[in-house]
Target: Peptidase S1 domain-containing protein
Amino acid sequence: MEKKLIKPVVHDNWVTPIVVVKKANASARICANFSTGLNNALLLHQHPLPLRWKSLLRAIRFLTGQVSGGAKIDIENVPWTMQFRAFLRKDEKHSYYISCACSLISPEFVLLAAHCFDGVKNGAVLSITYNTSKKEWHLNATDVKQRVTEHRHDRTNVFIHPNYNSETVVFDLALIKLSHPLKTPPFQPICINCGAANKFQNGTAFVSGWGQLEDTCKRSSTSSKVLMGRYAKLINCQKESEAEGQICVEPNILQHGDSGSALLASNGTAFVLIGVHSSGICNTKSNESVEALYTPLDKEWIDDITGFNCPV
Model:
């Protein structure tokens, strides 16, 4: 039998990311999560959330297609989810931007994929937008004076993981420190978990995004204009994909445009954020998806930048 040719495919349109945890000296988490209990009730931690969560969870139970073909989710139901945009270049007719999803991890920090900054020059203006059906909020992340750093500096507002490699897309993690803390509501961080990737293998996950509508590895200009979500299976990564240390999700779930999105998985009692969508594996002959790859969270790096104590 002819061996299938498989190679990594890095998605260059981004969307949906992450959220976090408790400070080292905090007595309780200030975050939200999904319950995995029979009644699908939302576990609340300090800040109550709207009852819309219950309706959202009931709807997600019946999703069947990939994210972009699943059920519509009002972003008010996932109040950690935001959109990131950075200017790249312009010509006589057009301006070009990188667009990505990001997630609120605390009142001051959002988490996203490091590859969202590929091609972004120092000094570029970043914007983070939270869209609701009622109002649009623009969060100014200020000009990027020093874009890449391995340490915490007073004037640095963008932190890209020091081990990020754009060729292999390992450690595909970045943090942005906002120019001012956000108040809830409408914003609400979600609980995160920095456990090892193999801790969550062969379980159930929740994914969402604004990716393309076609079930194919071919790039399409047709993307979802609304946030979509569904349950998905966590799988063992295929050896051919060389996805060591990453978290893999069943094929045909994530498409172009979903990169950077958050991966929520069960910690036994609730769904918590465990990874960021980084890339996908495609069969180059059939153009069929093999698996979606997520970067797990790095506890030491997140704790050092934010001052949190990310649970494992």
